[in-house]
Design brief:
Blueprint: H1 11-31, H2 36-107, E1 117-126, E2 134-137, E3 150-152, E4 157-164, E5 169-173, E6 180-185, E7 191-196, E8 203-209, E9 219-222, E10 234-242, E11 249-256, E12 265-270, H3 276-300, H4 305-320, H5 323-329, H6 334-349, H7 353-366
Antiparallel strand pairs: 1-2, 1-12, 2-5, 3-4, 3-12, 4-5, 6-7, 6-9, 7-8, 8-11, 9-10, 10-11
Length: 367
């Protein structure tokens, strides 16, 4: 009698067969291209299966994005309107402050410029040395570039010119280990020195007191104390401030505002290259010249009586002038002319003041 259920291979044998078959398929797939058509067909089937299983999730995300995007767009629109109004107000205030600054500089006879002259330059190369942060730009000595000239991009200061060629220049970036720049905290005016660390995304503020009022998020701007960089340009943003009670100075790390690794078009700043002593001397000379011009009318006032004194002979000249035509016109008029010339000659021999005063006196007595 045959048994009702035949006994098959054990589970261990089945597992071993499947393992051997899997290894064989992997070896054939790796070394030969026989299973490539099979894999492509299976990928099509699996892709459709993935699409069907992912359909509910995609439908849910699509519906949620439709309603959510409308709400977000409305909120963003309101936010942009508010920011636009605030920026317009700040722009008006900035225009008023700029005009006020110009008037105050005019009152102080200052020759410093409010807005520096800039020229656009393009980055054409980088230094291959990973330990130096230098770039090459397409403006050189023929374009008026000078050593130490500041370079910035649309976000902030980048560095300064350290090497000149006729048509190109090398710029040392702020993050180079040999570069430092005097800065100040825009919030409270705290001064410090920002030095490069060799990392294009980090600057360090050295010798900052542990009790200094500086915190994360503060904007650092150029102070202009080094007479190299113009004042007021963004340099970096404070990222981390570490206070150690056992150390006299805090550890302050900042991130440059300029895109040192991404900016392609740069700006060369042409500021006043005169020293403070020269500017002060020229301002004093200009003030002295203005004082001399203002004092010139007062020095000329004593000279006014001189034309009055010389006017007496001038008045006598017209009196004698008619005698010339009378003398030249007819011989008959010569006799009166000589008679009139005799009294005219007597004042020349005597002081002019005596006959001029005596003549009116005699006429009054006769009257």
């Amino acid at each position: 009698m045959k048994p009702l259920f035949t006994k098959g291979p054990s589970l261990g044998v089945r597992l071993l067969v499947l393992v051997v078959l899997s290894v064989a398929l992997m070896v054939v797939d790796a070394r030969f291209t026989l299973l490539k058509p099979v894999r492509s067909e299976m990928s099509l089937v699996l892709m459709r299966a993935y699409w069907v299983t992912d359909l509910p999730q995609r439908l849910y995300e699509g519906v949620a994005s439709q309603f959510g995007s409308r709400t977000e767009l409305l909120a963003e629109n309101e936010k942009l309107k508010t920011e636009g109004l605030l920026l317009q107000g700040r722009l008006q205030k900035l225009a008023a402050l700029t005009e006020q600054n110009v008037r105050l500089r005019e009152l102080l006879n200052s020759s410093a410029l409010v807005n520096e002259k800039v020229e656009v330059a393009e980055l054409i190369g980088m230094d291959p040395n990973p330990f130096t942060h230098r770039i090459l730009i397409n403006k050189g000595e023929r374009d008026g570039v000078v050593l130490g000239q500041p370079v910035l991009d649309a976000r902030g200061l980048m560095g300064q010119v350290v090497e000149l060629m006729p048509y190109t220049s090398r710029v040392l970036l702020l993050t180079d280990t040999t570069h430092s720049i005097p800065v100040q905290v825009n919030r409270n005016g705290l001064r410090a020195i920002a030095s490069g660390t060799g990392n294009p995304e980090r600057l360090e503020l050295r010798h900052v007191a542990d009790t200094a009022d500086i915190k994360e998020g503060d904007l650092l701007v150029s102070s202009g104390l080094g007479q190299r960089f113009p004042a007021g340009y963004p340099v970096a943003t404070v990222k981390e401030v570490i206070h150690d009670s056992g150390q006299p100075f805090a550890i302050v790390r900042a991130v440059p505002t300029a895109a040192l690794n991404r900016s392609r078009y740069l700006l060369l700043v042409f500021s006043d290259s005169r020293s403070p002593e020269q500017r002060a001397t020229e301002a004093a000379q200009a003030q002295e010249a203005a004082d001399r011009q203002g004092a010139a009318p007062q020095d000329g006032t004593p000279a006014t009586p001189v034309p009055a004194a010389t006017s007496a002979p001038a008045t006598a000249a017209p009196a004698a002038a008619p005698t010339a035509p009378a003398h030249t016109t007819t011989p008959a008029a010569t006799t009166p002319a000589r008679a009139s010339s005799a009294p005219a000659a007597t004042p020349e021999r005597t002081p002019p003041a005596t006959p001029s005063r005596s003549a009116p006196a005699t006429t009054r007595e006769r009257q």
